[in-house]
Amino acid sequence: MDASFWALVGLIIFLGIMAYIKVPAMMGSALDKRADQIRNELEQAKKLREEAQQLLAEYQRKRKEAEAEAAGILSAAEKEAAILRDEAKAKTEEYVSRRTAMAEQKIQQAEADAINEVRAAAVDLAVVAAENLIGKKVDSKASDALFKASLGDLKTRLN
Protein backbone atom coordinates (compact mmCIF):
# COMPACT_ATOMS: atom_id res chain seq x y z
CA MET A 1 0.00 0.00 0.00
CA ASP A 2 1.48 3.02 -1.03
CA ALA A 3 1.05 6.58 0.15
CA SER A 4 -1.56 7.48 -2.47
CA PHE A 5 -3.89 4.88 -1.12
CA TRP A 6 -3.53 6.16 2.43
CA ALA A 7 -4.01 9.73 1.20
CA LEU A 8 -7.25 8.64 -0.48
CA VAL A 9 -8.42 6.83 2.67
CA GLY A 10 -7.59 9.90 4.78
CA LEU A 11 -9.48 12.12 2.36
CA ILE A 12 -12.54 9.87 2.47
CA ILE A 13 -12.44 9.76 6.30
CA PHE A 14 -12.01 13.53 6.41
CA LEU A 15 -14.96 14.05 4.04
CA GLY A 16 -17.03 11.60 6.12
CA ILE A 17 -16.26 13.49 9.32
CA MET A 18 -17.12 16.74 7.59
CA ALA A 19 -20.43 15.31 6.41
CA TYR A 20 -21.11 13.89 9.90
CA ILE A 21 -20.67 17.27 11.64
CA LYS A 22 -22.71 18.88 8.87
CA VAL A 23 -20.02 21.24 7.69
CA PRO A 24 -21.58 21.64 4.22
CA ALA A 25 -24.88 22.67 5.84
CA MET A 26 -23.06 25.13 8.12
CA MET A 27 -21.20 26.54 5.14
CA GLY A 28 -24.47 26.81 3.19
CA SER A 29 -26.24 28.53 6.08
CA ALA A 30 -23.24 30.86 6.59
CA LEU A 31 -23.30 31.71 2.89
CA ASP A 32 -27.09 32.19 3.04
CA LYS A 33 -26.68 34.51 6.05
CA ARG A 34 -23.97 36.43 4.24
CA ALA A 35 -26.20 36.69 1.11
CA ASP A 36 -29.13 37.92 3.28
CA GLN A 37 -26.84 40.45 4.97
CA ILE A 38 -25.59 41.70 1.59
CA ARG A 39 -29.20 41.86 0.32
CA ASN A 40 -30.23 43.88 3.41
CA GLU A 41 -27.29 46.22 2.99
CA LEU A 42 -28.20 46.73 -0.68
CA GLU A 43 -31.81 47.51 0.30
CA GLN A 44 -30.63 49.98 2.95
CA ALA A 45 -28.26 51.58 0.46
CA LYS A 46 -31.14 51.86 -2.02
CA LYS A 47 -33.37 53.49 0.63
CA LEU A 48 -30.57 55.86 1.64
CA ARG A 49 -30.00 56.76 -2.01
CA GLU A 50 -33.73 57.51 -2.47
CA GLU A 51 -33.76 59.65 0.70
CA ALA A 52 -30.65 61.48 -0.49
CA GLN A 53 -32.30 62.14 -3.86
CA GLN A 54 -35.43 63.43 -2.11
CA LEU A 55 -33.32 65.71 0.10
CA LEU A 56 -31.40 66.91 -2.92
CA ALA A 57 -34.64 67.68 -4.77
CA GLU A 58 -36.00 69.48 -1.70
CA TYR A 59 -32.85 71.56 -1.29
CA GLN A 60 -32.84 72.42 -4.98
CA ARG A 61 -36.48 73.50 -4.72
CA LYS A 62 -35.67 75.61 -1.64
CA ARG A 63 -32.68 77.12 -3.44
CA LYS A 64 -34.87 78.05 -6.42
CA GLU A 65 -37.46 79.57 -4.07
CA ALA A 66 -34.73 81.52 -2.28
CA GLU A 67 -33.34 82.74 -5.60
CA ALA A 68 -36.82 83.81 -6.71
CA GLU A 69 -37.38 85.58 -3.39
CA ALA A 70 -34.00 87.30 -3.66
CA ALA A 71 -34.86 88.42 -7.19
CA GLY A 72 -38.18 89.78 -5.91
CA ILE A 73 -36.48 91.61 -3.07
CA LEU A 74 -33.91 93.03 -5.49
CA SER A 75 -36.63 94.15 -7.88
CA ALA A 76 -38.58 95.79 -5.04
CA ALA A 77 -35.42 97.51 -3.80
CA GLU A 78 -34.68 98.82 -7.29
CA LYS A 79 -38.24 100.16 -7.61
CA GLU A 80 -38.02 101.79 -4.18
CA ALA A 81 -34.65 103.31 -5.05
CA ALA A 82 -36.12 104.71 -8.28
CA ILE A 83 -39.05 106.19 -6.35
CA LEU A 84 -36.71 107.72 -3.76
CA ARG A 85 -34.48 109.08 -6.52
CA ASP A 86 -37.49 110.66 -8.27
CA GLU A 87 -38.75 112.13 -4.99
CA ALA A 88 -35.31 113.54 -4.20
CA LYS A 89 -35.07 115.01 -7.69
CA ALA A 90 -38.52 116.61 -7.36
CA LYS A 91 -37.68 118.01 -3.92
CA THR A 92 -34.38 119.37 -5.22
CA GLU A 93 -36.08 121.01 -8.19
CA GLU A 94 -38.72 122.47 -5.87
CA TYR A 95 -36.03 123.76 -3.52
CA VAL A 96 -34.09 125.31 -6.41
CA SER A 97 -37.23 126.95 -7.80
CA ARG A 98 -38.13 128.34 -4.35
CA ARG A 99 -34.62 129.65 -3.85
CA THR A 100 -34.68 131.17 -7.35
CA ALA A 101 -38.02 132.84 -6.62
CA MET A 102 -36.69 134.16 -3.31
CA ALA A 103 -33.57 135.47 -5.02
CA GLU A 104 -35.69 137.16 -7.70
CA GLN A 105 -37.86 138.72 -4.96
CA LYS A 106 -34.77 139.98 -3.17
CA ILE A 107 -33.42 141.40 -6.42
CA GLN A 108 -36.75 143.17 -7.13
CA GLN A 109 -36.82 144.51 -3.56
CA ALA A 110 -33.22 145.68 -3.88
CA GLU A 111 -34.09 147.39 -7.20
CA ALA A 112 -37.13 149.07 -5.61
CA ASP A 113 -35.04 150.16 -2.61
CA ALA A 114 -32.36 151.51 -4.92
CA ILE A 115 -34.96 153.41 -6.99
CA ASN A 116 -36.51 154.82 -3.79
CA GLU A 117 -33.09 155.85 -2.49
CA VAL A 118 -32.29 157.55 -5.81
CA ARG A 119 -35.68 159.31 -5.74
CA ALA A 120 -35.17 160.37 -2.13
CA ALA A 121 -31.68 161.63 -2.94
CA ALA A 122 -33.06 163.47 -6.00
CA VAL A 123 -35.85 165.01 -3.90
CA ASP A 124 -33.36 166.04 -1.21
CA LEU A 125 -31.09 167.48 -3.86
CA ALA A 126 -34.00 169.27 -5.53
CA VAL A 127 -35.12 170.69 -2.17
CA VAL A 128 -31.62 171.91 -1.39
CA ALA A 129 -31.29 173.36 -4.90
CA ALA A 130 -34.72 174.99 -4.60
CA GLU A 131 -33.83 176.44 -1.21
CA ASN A 132 -30.61 177.83 -2.60
CA LEU A 133 -32.34 179.17 -5.67
CA ILE A 134 -35.30 180.62 -3.75
CA GLY A 135 -32.99 181.93 -1.06
CA LYS A 136 -31.01 183.84 -3.68
CA LYS A 137 -33.94 185.13 -5.73
CA VAL A 138 -36.68 185.76 -3.17
CA ASP A 139 -36.43 188.53 -0.63
CA SER A 140 -38.63 188.95 2.44
CA LYS A 141 -41.33 190.89 0.54
CA ALA A 142 -41.67 188.20 -2.08
CA SER A 143 -41.52 185.56 0.65
CA ASP A 144 -44.48 187.12 2.45
CA ALA A 145 -46.47 187.31 -0.79
CA LEU A 146 -45.72 183.65 -1.58
CA PHE A 147 -46.71 182.62 1.92
CA LYS A 148 -50.02 184.46 1.71
CA ALA A 149 -50.72 183.03 -1.74
CA SER A 150 -49.97 179.48 -0.50
CA LEU A 151 -52.16 180.03 2.53
CA GLY A 152 -55.06 181.21 0.37
CA ASP A 153 -54.58 178.28 -1.99
CA LEU A 154 -54.65 175.92 0.97
CA LYS A 155 -57.92 177.47 2.31
CA THR A 156 -59.63 177.02 -1.03
CA ARG A 157 -58.56 173.38 -1.26
CA LEU A 158 -59.71 172.57 2.26
CA ASN A 159 -63.22 174.00 1.77
TrEMBL record:
Q: Which CDD domains match?
A: ATP-synt_Fo_b
The question of whether Lipoprotein is a record keyword is answered with: no
GO molecular function, a single term: proton-transporting ATP synthase activity, rotational mechanism
Cellular compartments per GO CC? plasma membrane; proton-transporting ATP synthase complex
Membrane-spanning ranges: 6-25
Q: How does it sit in the membrane?
A: Single-pass membrane protein
Coiled-coil stretches, from where to where? 28-94
Location comes to: Cell inner membrane; Cell membrane
Q: Which UniProt keywords apply?
A: ATP synthesis, Cell membrane, CF(0), Coiled coil, Hydrogen ion transport, Hydrolase, Ion transport, Membrane, Transmembrane, Transmembrane helix, Transport
User: Domain of life, per the record?
Assistant: Bacteria
InterPro entries under this entry?
A: ATP_synth_b/b'su_bac/chlpt, ATP_synth_F0_bsu_bac, ATP_synthase_B_chain
Q: What is its main location?
A: membrane
Q: How does it assemble?
A: F-type ATPases have 2 components, F(1) - the catalytic core - and F(0) - the membrane proton channel. F(1) has five subunits: alpha(3), beta(3), gamma(1), delta(1), epsilon(1). F(0) has three main subunits: a(1), b(2) and c(10-14). The alpha and beta chains form an alternating ring which encloses part of the gamma chain. F(1) is attached to F(0) by a central stalk formed by the gamma and epsilon chains, while a peripheral stalk is formed by the delta and b chains. F-type ATPases have 2 components, F(1) - the catalytic core - and F(0) - the membrane proton channel. F(1) has five subunits: alpha(3), beta(3), gamma(1), delta(1), epsilon(1). F(0) has four main subunits: a(1), b(2) and c(10-14). The alpha and beta chains form an alternating ring which encloses part of the gamma chain. F(1) is attached to F(0) by a central stalk formed by the gamma and epsilon chains, while a peripheral stalk is formed by the delta and b chains.
Q: Which NCBIfam families match?
A: ATP_synt_b, PRK09173.1
Q: What family is this protein classified in? A: Belongs to the ATPase B chain family.
Described purpose of this protein according to its UniProt entry: F(1)F(0) ATP synthase produces ATP from ADP in the presence of a proton or sodium gradient. F-type ATPases consist of two structural domains, F(1) containing the extramembraneous catalytic core and F(0) containing the membrane proton channel, linked together by a central stalk and a peripheral stalk. During catalysis, ATP synthesis in the catalytic domain of F(1) is coupled via a rotary mechanism of the central stalk subunits to proton translocation.
User: Which named protein is this?
Assistant: ATP synthase subunit b
Phylogenetic lineage? Bacteria, Pseudomonadati, Pseudomonadota, Alphaproteobacteria, Hyphomicrobiales
